[in-house]
Specification:
Blueprint: E1 2-7, E2 20-21, H1 25-32, E3 39-44, H2 52-63, E4 67-71, H3 77-90, E5 95-99, H4 101-105, E6 119-121, H5 126-138, E7 148-152, E8 155-158, E9 186-187, E10 192-195, E11 198-199, H6 210-214, E12 219-220, H7 223-235, E13 240-243, H8 252-264, E14 271-276, H9 278-295, E15 297-305, H10 309-315, E16 322-325, E17 328-332, H11 334-343, E18 347-353, H12 361-374, E19 377-381, H13 390-397, H14 423-448, H15 450-464, H16 470-473, H17 479-493
Parallel strand pairs: 1-3, 1-4, 4-5, 5-6, 10-13, 13-14, 14-15, 15-18, 18-19
Antiparallel strand pairs: 2-9, 6-7, 7-8, 11-12, 16-17
Length: 497
């Protein structure tokens, strides 16, 4: 069977695509978990954002897929449905399956006959997709495939959910990176890949889709498998690795053991990026941070979320941002965590969420001032009402959702207002600060890859300051005019087909 797996071209706008183009690890994992006699091609359309139609036409012509799979997030739904219609015209006989966060949490969005979808994979996809392909190959029915929804006449049948995989029994095989048919993955000039060492989280943050997909749990791969995955990524050209675990620092002792295993295996010649809790770094940073640096960690995405107690309470993120130990019990852990990382020559990507229900202008500015002072790379988002998250119910109950266009649900478009500010003002405040904070770290990043800097430094600057003119920088034009130009450019960027 010929299988074509697609990730969507829609991207978060925090960094220009010339600097950050990350692979979709779920697709290569799916490719590695179908039986090896099938021909599987993986295409990350983020690599061809301005050439989506011609790329799909070429791939369908060359691969002649019997089955086309799409991985979809909520803000990518509009594009995904358009791509499905294109696939239907190019290859009418192909079956279409969708999966990912959006399909798992809002399957009804794909059951209308006009959507053109045959199957929906809900939750973790590897085993469900493997069984689906086997059933198609045998001509068997689909009723026994847990986690699958399938079209039956004009209606969909939803099979029972598949239990969450424990990961330690070897059911989930290594990814198949050789299935990729497009090139150009990069992290500021270094070829990047993604590796997963664990899945899940036991916290219940109100904005999180993960716990809605798989519940509150934490499962891990054996280190031998993780190291084999890193070696495979390096063999395929990666010089930077993003560990995409939902919450790798949930078990600090295990993370320390992983760092030691990376060092012992001689895999610390790569640049690693990881997502981490502030409390874990703050409470264990004296020993953990030097070990991370020795293992090759360069960037740490800290889930700071917010520095105000009222907002942390709304986000249900108080516990993972509290200091403990050494006589301290309480208080935000962010500054301590950042100090440990900076002392060990690692850079902080600061994840914050501004525009929560009670936020005032002063509350947002307080968070922005914190980012200016402490964070190397800002990753500031607005609360976004994704399907089935607790946050969504709160915003809907309070009548604060002002935009139902899902293509705008990219995290940096404000689609909700607060009790004190409209959405345009919230987004403007973030945008105005975000550009200049990013500029602070740009020289550091480019020194790390000087040839990339020579080729692409101006492109990155133009992207970061798109919409801005000399007149606005000199104060001869209202900044809001620049902001409106930026938003018009952002809307145009979202048109991929």
């Amino acid at each position: 069977m010929n299988i074509l797996l697609l990730s969507m071209p829609d991207s978060f706008e925090h960094m220009p695509s010339v600097a950050i183009r990350m692979p979709n690890g779920a697709l290569t994992s799916l490719a590695g978990n179908v039986d090896p006699h099938h021909r599987v091609a993986v295409a990350d359309l983020i690599l061809v954002q301005r050439r989506v139609r011609e790329t799909l036409e070429r791939l369908v012509r060359e691969i002649e897929p019997d089955l086309v799979g799409l991985s979809v997030m909520t803000f990518q739904r509009h594009t995904a449905l358009r791509i499905i219609q294109l696939i239907r015209r190019l290859r009418p006989a192909a079956r279409v399956v969708v999966g990912g966060y959006d399909a798992s949490l809002a399957p009804d969005a794909y059951t209308d006959p006009s959507a053109g979808v045959d199957f929906i994979v809900r939750g973790e996809g590897e085993l469900t997709f493997r069984e689906l392909v086997r059933a198609l190959e045998r001509g068997a029915d689909f009723t026994g495939v847990a986690g699958l929804s399938f079209k039956c006449g004009e209606r969909f049948t939803h099979n029972p959910d598949r239990p969450v995989n424990g990961l330690d029994e070897g059911d989930v095989r290594l990814p198949n990176r050789g299935a990729r048919v497009l090139k150009g993955y990069t992290m500021v000039g270094r070829q990047v890949d993604v590796v997963e060492t664990s899945r899940g989280c036991t916290f219940d943050c109100s904005f999180c889709s993960i716990i809605e997909m798989r519940g509150r749990n934490f499962h891990t791969y054996h280190f031998d498998r993780v190291l084999a995955d890193i070696r495979d990524a390096r063999a395929h050209g990666a010089r930077a690795i993003f560990l995409v675990d939902d919450n790798i620092t949930l078990n600090v002792r295990r993370f320390e053991g992983l760092c030691r295993a990376i060092i012992a295996a001689g895999l610390n010649d790569l640049d690693y990026t990881v997502q981490a809790m502030t409390s874990a770094i703050a409470n264990h940073g004296r020993t953990l941070a030097p070990l991370m640096r020795q293992a090759g960690f360069r960037y740490v995405f800290l889930g700071i979320e917010n520095i105000l107690d009222e907002d942390l309470e709304f986000l249900r993120a108080e516990a993972k941002n509290r200091r403990r130990g050494d006589g301290a019990n309480g208080g935000n852990a962010a500054v301590t965590a950042i100090e440990y990382l900076h002392q060990n020559k690692m850079y902080v990507v600061g994840g914050l969420i501004v525009g929560n229900p009670t936020d005032t202008r002063a509350a947002i500015e307080t968070n922005l001032d914190f980012v200016r002072r402490y964070v190397d790379v800002p990753y500031i988002q607005h609360p976004t009402p994704y399907p089935r998250t607790p946050m969504t119910k709160t915003f809907r109950d309070q009548g604060l959702i002002i935009n139902e266009q899902l293509e705008d649900y990219d995290g940096t478009t404000a689609v909700v207002r607060t009790a004190h500010l409209d959405s345009d003002e919230i987004e403007f405040l973030r945008w105005r600060a975000d550009r200049w904070i990013k500029l602070k770290h740009l020289p550091v990043a480019l020194v790390h890859t000087p040839l990339f800097a020579l080729r692409n430094g101006l492109k990155m600057l133009r992207y970061t300051f798109r919409g801005t003119t000399i007149r606005s920088i000199l104060g001869l034009e209202d900044e809001r005019k620049s902001f409106e130009r930026y938003r018009a450019l952002r809307r145009a960027e979202r048109m991929y087909l």
